[in-house]
Amino acid sequence: MSAHSIRRQRLAEAIRARGGGVAIAFNAPEVVRNRDSEYPYRWDSDFYYLTGFPEPEAAVVMVVDGAGSESVLFCRDKDEERETWDGTRFGPEAARERFGFERAEPIARLDEELAKLLADRPALWYALGSNERLDARVRGWLGAVRAQARAGVAAPAQALDLRALVDEMRLVKDDGELDTMRRAARISAAAHVRAMRATRPGCREYEIEAELLHEFRRNGSQFPAYGSIVAAGRNACVLHYRGNEARLADGELLLVDAGCELDGYASDITRTFPVNGHFGGPQRALYDVVLEAQQAAIDAVRPGARFVDPHDAAVRVLARGLIDCGLLQGSVDGAIESGAYKRFYMHRTSHWLGMDVHDCGDYREPGAPPGDGGRPWRVLQPGMVMTIEPGLYVRGDDLPEAWRDIGIRIEDDALVTASGCEILTADAPKSPGDIEALMRG
Question: Is 172-440 the same fold as 3-167?
Fold first, then answer.
C-alpha cells in the first residue's frame, strides 16, 4: 500500500472518530501568467499529500461511515487532441489503478456525484473559507441535497474544516518524507557552496541567484521553494528583499536566503558571508553573536521541549551580544522585557518546514486550555521539522557608522529526533573560518 493510501486511511479514521461524513480536497488550478502563458504548475499540498496525483482539474472525495470508507478521485478524461499539446493524461481508469483509489470518475461529473454522495451524511469536511469559488460550489451541493428533503433525504448538518485534521497529520513527517527532505537539503547546501565560490566584488546579486537556480535544477529540484533572497550590504536589512539587482561591493556582506523544492518538499537555508572573502571587525563581531545564538537555539531542540524554547534561547544570546557591542544599554533581562532587542531582531527564530516552506501545523497545543499567555506552546516530538534562523539587522543614522547597514541571518533546517535534533542542512558551511577558507579556494 502506498504512503498516500495509508494517509487516506488515517484521515478516514480521524473522520470516523468524529462521527463520519464526506471529505473533499481539490488540486490547485492552473494560473495564467499573462495572455495564454501559464505559471509553472504546482499542485495543492494537502491534495498531493493525500493522493500523489499530479494533474490539475482534480478532486478527491472520501466517504466515511461506520462500515468503512471509500476514496473517489475525480480527474480529467483522456483527450488525444489536448494530450498532443500538453502531454499525457492518466484518465480516470489508469489513475484509479496507479494511485490506489476505490473509484475514479471524470471531473465533469463532480457536481452530479456530490449531490448523491452528500445525501444523508452527517458532515461535510473541506477547506472552509479557503476559496470563494469552492465555498459557492459547496453551497450548490448542499442546496441540491436539501431540495430532496420531501423525499426524506437529509443534507449534512455540519461543515467542518478538513485542514484541522490534515495539518496535524502533516506536522510529523514519515520516513519517506524525511528522506526527500534530506535530499532537498543536500541540494540546497550545495547551491550555497556554489554561491560562495562565485561571489566576488563587482558581481550583481542576480548573478549569484543564477548560480543557486542552476545548482537546484541540475540536481533534480523542480522549483525553488520560495523566491530567493540575495541581499548585499544594506539590502540584507530588508527581511523579504526581492530586488536581487544591486552590485556587490568590496567590504560588504552578502545574505543569501534560498532553498529548493524537491518532489513537493521544501528546504530553507540562509547564509551570510563577506563579498571579498574576509569578515571585517564589526561584521565578525555581529556574525559571532548570531552564530552563538543559533547554536543555543539548536541545543534547545529536543523532544519534550516547547516550540518557543529555541527562540527564547536565541533571544537571550542576541540581547547579550547587542549589549556587549554597545548597540543596547542596560541588562540582558531588561533588553528582553522591554523588547529593546526587537529593533535589531524583529522576527521569530523558527517555523515549521515540509511541503510548504512555512508549513502547516499549529504552533500552540491544539485543544489545550489557555494558560496565562494563551494556549501552551506546542511540545516538540520526533518527526517534526523546523527552521532555526536567528539574525541581526543593524541600520539607522543614530548608530556608529562602523555598525550601520549590517544584516546577518544564519538559518538551518532541524529535524527533531528521539535524542535531540538532526541538522539537515549541515553541508552548507557557516563558521567564519570555513567560509573564508572556501572563498579563498
Answer: no
